[in-house]
Write a structure and sequence with these properties.
mainly alpha, about 70 residues, single chain
Length: about 70
Amino acid sequence: MTSATPLVRVERGHASDDELAALTVVLLSRTTAPDPAPAARPAAPAVPLWDRPERNAPYRPPVSWRR
């Protein structure tokens, strides 16, 4: 990859070539690391897709239509 813009920019201070190489190794290892175990992720809530939202509406008194 040869491009005019650098992939990493040092905001403050002066990084040596060894420090930039170490940073590159860490960043590349993060991109190639396997995904965490799927069981460790929280499961999606078990909400049926066919559920009608009006059934979960808050209680309204019978005369609320008069307002």
